[in-house]
Amino acid sequence: MTQRSPASAATRAMRDGVVDAAGGPIIFDYVQARGPEGVRFDVWYCGEHLCELAKTVQGAALRRYAAPARAAYLAVGEIDGARAAPAAIDLPELPAMVAHAERFIGEPLATKRRRDASADVIESAIVYPAFLRVPDERMDEVCRWYDEEHLPMLMDCPQWAMARRFRIAPGQGLDWTHVALHYLSDIRALQSPQRDAARKTPWRDALIAEGWFAPEYRVCYRARDF
Prior knowledge:
This protein has one domain: Alpha-Beta Plaits (2-Layer Sandwich), CATH 3.30.70. It contains 5 helices and 10 strands. The chain is an alpha+beta fold and 226 residues long.
């Protein structure tokens, strides 16, 4: 028997406030320090790791972020839609002061933004990745939940500007299958009533009840000076 999805809790006005936008593949590069390495880690990351990444992505635009609560840095490379994304992108050998690192190709699924978001929404102050392990047979359902309910409800918050969803290309050595990059203009969006409502719906509860739906979230702040 086909499992029926709960009715979306998003209103017509919420859905009308969200529009589709173009989006291409990305390179996601995340590095977390081990312990209080301080300046030594910063010198290595900015002076070596970022330089090597820039060479590897061959001129792709890199937007860089810091995650202070995790002692981590994130770089998101935008792959020009005119050229094919590589099948994979390897991490170099990393020093012992790196506790955790991830690098992968994100294949675009969809991009949604607030209808009134500015043209430079991709330059938002905060990017908020949400990772999921989605079984192949549930991917269509998750995409529908994002598009029909979750993102319209989140973007009813004025500070929730855009979300870009990606399938993590296979063969990257990661358990994650899917990542959504949420773009926020203000950290208070994460404590907004709109976010609270989007996390308490029958549809989301039904996904959680299946056991595999357990997102991991990270908060990263735009860093323009390194």
